[in-house]
Amino acid sequence: MKKYIYIILAATAALSLSSCQKEVGTLAGNDTAPHAVLTTFAPGDEYDSDCDVAVRFTANDVTTDLYYLAEKTADKNARNMSDEQYADYVVSNGTKVTTSVNQIDGSQSADVVLQSLFGDNTISVVASNGSAKHLASTTFSGLQWVTLATGTFESKKMSALGIPAMKTSLQKCEQLEGTYRFKDLYKKGYHYVFKTQGKAQTDADGDTFYYVTVAGQEIGLTYGSYGNISVRDVATWQGNDAYLQYNTFYPDYNYVIIWAQYYVSAGNLGYDDDIFTADE
Length: 280
Fold this sequence. Notes:
This protein is mainly β. The protein has helices spanning about 75-80, 85-95, 155-160, 235-240, and strands at about 5-10, 35-40, 55-60, 65-70, 95, 110-115, 120-130, 130-140, 145-155, 165-175, 180-185, 190-200, 210-215, 215-220, 230-235, 250, 255-265, 265-280. Strand 12 (about 190-200) and strand 13 (about 210-215) form a beta hairpin. It is elongated, with a radius of gyration of 24 Å.
């Protein structure tokens, strides 16, 4: 799988990673064999972090060539290869990392954005120098979403703050049971996620519905000097399941109504119904 957007030359820590310490094996002058490490991090708002991932490759100054490969973990396991065999496989079938210099060493790194990695994937890198090779791997689980309907989302509370009703897509997650979202609702890269709770219910008219919850999540907008706006359902906010009766999802009609609270770190902005109505 060779899906990527760009490779850039980066000096030390140009992006924020989970750790800024140098890994053993990437310090120039200390090694006699090729060595590489890889670190994954969020790729930025212009990408879909559910299935896209940024990877930073760093190698020591003994490394003359660097190759990477991303593939389904099940496919990798089915090959039943030793590390030595798989390193050769990555070199033969992967993508060579190149920069503006002849080799990657401990003072340099290369960033790659891999896209559309759905399901469980293994990302591997091989540092080589002639016949000497070093293999390193990490895993990434990408979520795949299926569109159930397009329609109109109206937030009564956000309408009061000047945000009108908007068109969006209702999507279901293939990997996480009972997980749904409104894609890119208020801002690209910020999805409004909700989850069903318990078994299906039947209303007085015989229609099937589920109760749903909305965990606290940022929506991509800010409120003056108070910073980021977040949303959650009132039942979650109050810690009281009695309020779940006001959060319902009708799968036969793709209709959703949620009693939602919007808030910032300083406090409550208010609460009212969020409603999604599918197009006919």
